[in-house]
Structures are given as C-alpha cells and as structure tokens.
C-alpha cells in the first residue's frame, strides 16, 4: 500500500489539468483520514491501509469525474464556519461573504434586530450573521425540506440557536413579521447560460441556480414583496450576476427603495446590490 505522500502524488497525477489538483488531493485525504494538514506533513511515510487506499481511489475518481470537493467531503468553510453541505443545496462560495460584510454594516447587534435570509440553503448567510450578531434574531427560509433540515443541522452543530429556519417559498413563512434586514442569494442564472454545463455547477441543484426572465424572476419577486416585510429604514441586500447590476438597481428604485448601491466581489465583479425603505 502507498504512503501518505505517495497517495497524494498519485492523486495529483489523476487530477492534473484540474483547477487545484494539489489542494484537492490533500483535502480529500484529510477527510478520509479525519486528520489535519499538520498530520499529513508530520507522517508522510505512514502507509495507508487496504481499505483507506481503496476508498481514496474511489473519492479521487469522483473528483476526476467533476464532482465538487465540497460534496465529496460533505463540508465547506464559509465565514470561518465549517458547514455541512449536500447536493440538496448550493456550495457556499467566498464571494457571498461580500453580502455578509455589507449586511453587517446595515444592522446593530441588538435584541430588537430582526434579520431574514431567503433561500438559505446550507444556512451560510444566516449563520454567518448570527455568529457576528449574537443578540439579533435571525430567521431563514427555504422551499426544500432537505435544505431546511441541513440548515437546521448546521445551526445546531455551530450552537447558533437564535437562528430559526422555516420551510416555505421566500417570505411565505413570515406573515405579519417585520425585519430590519432582508438578505438573499437567490437563483440568478439564465437557464440558457452555457456555463451551467461546466465545472461544479453541473452537480448543484438547478432550482437553486437558475431563474426565468434571464435570471431575474426570483430577484423581482423578492424586491416587489420586500417592502411589506421591512421596517422603516430597513435594508434589502441581494447577491446577483455580474451583469445584472443595472436591472437589479432598476427593480429596487421602481419598488420605492432609496440609497441604492452596488458592491463588487473579490474578483472586481458587481455582485451585491441593496437599498433601504425610507423612514
């Protein structure tokens, strides 16, 4: 059987041509051995068991076939939080942290602060906000029961009990409630976008990726309904496609939002747009 370093070298060869063969080989092996990077560096000559080697080959084959590493290992880090992921939800991405950053600028860490994350998936945005605003009340919704269960599991694992996850479409579970902040990373990709057949998104649920009206249907729904759920002075913040800034800003302005702005992601692309309801 190969040693740890030999197994990683083999995996890197199998993954050659991918985005990050060295990192993928390491992360998958750490998951298999339930260890950290220090262990791999300290014991490079340690031999894998027959079972470990066989399983490692199976996992690397999945990655070669294009399956996302996050689905293979069942977790992904977001905002320094380790989140369980599954094919029922999108994989949290670093650029979505820009939405969290902007949200934290708009609300205070107070007991009367109410926040809702629509289409929460893994719960990444809601849980990141709850971790920074422990006094606030954070709510989240998702249409899919398996996504709701996953977000609830993540909240429990992270001991963020102030996050309440409810099943339903967008605002549906929150009749009569008012919020200081509404955030969402809704589906915003055009169903005809050729990128849907490339990379990790091939394995992610299309219902969490695509929307009609060239990707704007769900955003338009949220924007048009948000004023009824926002307190005076409350904010709506949305993640969107790199080329949707003008359309999203136009929707916000048409629905009575003020102080409309757009923030770029870490790659310099327009990614988060928001506005507030005037007092």
From TrEMBL:
<dbReference type="GO" id="GO:0102559">
    <property type="term" value="F:peptide chain release factor N(5)-glutamine methyltransferase activity"/>
</dbReference>
<keyword id="KW-0489">Methyltransferase</keyword>
<comment type="similarity">
    <text>Belongs to the protein N5-glutamine methyltransferase family. PrmC subfamily.</text>
</comment>
<dbReference type="InterPro" id="IPR029063">
    <property type="entry name" value="SAM-dependent_MTases_sf"/>
</dbReference>
<dbReference type="Pfam" id="PF17827">
    <property type="entry name" value="PrmC_N"/>
</dbReference>
<feature type="binding site">
    <location>
        <position position="142"/>
    </location>
    <ligand>
        <name>S-adenosyl-L-methionine</name>
    </ligand>
</feature>
<feature type="binding site">
    <location>
        <begin position="119"/>
        <end position="123"/>
    </location>
    <ligand>
        <name>S-adenosyl-L-methionine</name>
    </ligand>
</feature>
<dbReference type="InterPro" id="IPR007848">
    <property type="entry name" value="Small_mtfrase_dom"/>
</dbReference>
<feature type="domain" description="Release factor glutamine methyltransferase N-terminal">
    <location>
        <begin position="6"/>
        <end position="74"/>
    </location>
</feature>
<feature type="binding site">
    <location>
        <begin position="185"/>
        <end position="188"/>
    </location>
    <ligand>
        <name>substrate</name>
    </ligand>
</feature>
<dbReference type="InterPro" id="IPR040758">
    <property type="entry name" value="PrmC_N"/>
</dbReference>
<protein>
    <recommendedName>
        <fullName>Release factor glutamine methyltransferase</fullName>
        <ecNumber>2.1.1.297</ecNumber>
    </recommendedName>
</protein>
<dbReference type="GO" id="GO:0032259">
    <property type="term" value="P:methylation"/>
</dbReference>
<comment type="function">
    <text>Methylates the class 1 translation termination release factors RF1/PrfA and RF2/PrfB on the glutamine residue of the universally conserved GGQ motif.</text>
</comment>
<dbReference type="InterPro" id="IPR050320">
    <property type="entry name" value="N5-glutamine_MTase"/>
</dbReference>
<dbReference type="InterPro" id="IPR004556">
    <property type="entry name" value="HemK-like"/>
</dbReference>
<dbReference type="InterPro" id="IPR019874">
    <property type="entry name" value="RF_methyltr_PrmC"/>
</dbReference>
<keyword id="KW-0808">Transferase</keyword>
<dbReference type="Pfam" id="PF05175">
    <property type="entry name" value="MTS"/>
</dbReference>
<keyword id="KW-0949">S-adenosyl-L-methionine</keyword>
<feature type="binding site">
    <location>
        <position position="185"/>
    </location>
    <ligand>
        <name>S-adenosyl-L-methionine</name>
    </ligand>
</feature>
<dbReference type="InterPro" id="IPR002052">
    <property type="entry name" value="DNA_methylase_N6_adenine_CS"/>
</dbReference>
<feature type="domain" description="Methyltransferase small">
    <location>
        <begin position="104"/>
        <end position="191"/>
    </location>
</feature>
<feature type="binding site">
    <location>
        <position position="170"/>
    </location>
    <ligand>
        <name>S-adenosyl-L-methionine</name>
    </ligand>
</feature>
